[in-house]
Amino acid sequence: MGKRLTQIATRTGDDGTTGLGDNTRVSKDSLRVHAMGDVDELNSHIGLLLCEEMPGDVRELLVEIQHQLFNLGGELSIPGFELLKAEAVEALDTALAKYNAQLPKLQEFILPAGNRAASQAHVCRTVARRAERALVALGASDKLREAPRQYLNRLSDLMFVLARVLNRMNGGDDVYWKSERLARSQDGA
User: Fold this and answer.
1) Three-state secondary-structure class, residue 17
2) 112 phi and psi angles, rounded to 5 deg
3) NCBIfam families annotated for this entry (predicted)?
């Protein structure tokens, strides 16, 4: 692994390049750097979500996810290196099953709204989807393992489910989309 940062303002990026963990330099607009940035942004949004009130088990899960996202970012910064393990994907599958079992089945689409914690979870969901798209784009040109892409896919699903869980805190509920089709079917039209 490359050197740990001992200073932040190195000026080495002034030429539009950045250093990877294997000591190579790449353009700051490379697909790899975009993917790293999206994963970093997602981790930051989860940090913001953690500022909100939430059940303790959800908080513990999100903290673990932050660590795994840091692993994912590290893996992206060192081409060919593995930091994110398959067990991390399995942990998300387990969490998805646990929290989904607590929720009523959806009858209609929901809006990314509700209380602030749920709304921030929806922001995390959309950033996870963008990070996943960045990994797919990177994977078209560079060899990548499946686990990072699978992790982001599961994580976006989990963030949707957690938004629903968080909306139910203190007696709240999902915010349903006012579908014209649904309204017509309920009116008998």
Assistant:
1) strand
2) -75, 75
3) PduO_Nterm
pLDDT of residue 153: 98
Tell me what pLDDT residue 1 has.
47
State the pTM of this model.
Answer: 0.86
* Rounded CA separation 122/155 (Å): 11
Cβ proximity of 39 and 28 under 8 Å: no
| pLDDT at residue 121 in the model | 98
CB atoms within 10 A of CB 56: 7
Q: Which two tokens stand for residue 75?
A: 């893996």
Amino acid at 172: G
Residues in the chain predicted with pLDDT less than 50, given as ranges, are: 1
Kind plus residue range of the DSSP H or E element containing 27? strand 25-27
Of 156, 55, 39, 148, nearest in space to 96 by CA? 156
pLDDT number for residue 182: 60
- Tell me the residue length of the chain: 189
* Helix (H/G/I), strand (E/B), else coil: 111: coil
Determine which helix (DSSP H) or strand (DSSP E) holds 150, and give its type and residue range: helix 146-167
Cα(182)–Cα(35) distance, integer angstroms: 38
